[in-house]
Write a structure and sequence with these properties.
Elements lengths: L2 E7 L5 H9 L8 E3 L5 E13 L2 E10 L1 H9 L2 H10 L12 H11 L12
Antiparallel strand pairs: 1-4, 2-3, 3-4
Helix pairs in contact: 2-4
Pfam families: SchA_CurD (PF04486)
Protein name: SchA/CurD-like domain-containing protein
Organism: Streptomyces axinellae
Length: about 120
């Protein structure tokens, strides 16, 4: 399964506050992401958030089309809530109020995957 990682430029020293934001995250009811045709287009298998000093990275393990996942995430209430709560802690604002802005920000924040390994069958 592929992984994607997106970065956030944050103010250093707010690890506790940011941890609380993610600790109260409202998860989606299903890992299934549907495409425009209403059929399953992707799955979000796992997520994790890492932080050090002024950098935060969100890792997403997924199946399917990453753009479809980004569009799906843009409409999720929990994701919108996290993005709004993170705003005061960002050193670079993120345009995530619209689906188009969210997807553009997601793409701009995406790290290049250099290597990926898994021992799962």
């Amino acid at each position: 399964m592929p992984f994607a990682a997106i970065t956030y430029d944050i103010k250093a020293g707010y690890e506790k506050e940011i941890s609380e934001i993610f600790g109260n995250f409202r998860r989606v009811g299903s890992p299934v992401v549907k495409g425009d045709d209403g059929e399953e287009a992707a799955r979000i298998l796992a997520t994790a958030v890492f932080i050090r000093e002024d950098t935060m990275v969100r890792v997403i393990e997924y199946e399917g089309d990453l753009d479809t996942i980004a569009r799906h995430m843009a409409t999720q209430p929990g994701v919108k809530e996290v993005e709004a709560k993170l705003a005061p802690y960002l050193t670079r604002p993120r345009d995530t109020d619209t689906v188009e802005g969210f997807v553009a920000t997601f793409r701009r924040s995406l790290l290049t995957c250099m290597a990926q390994m898994s021992v799962r069958a």
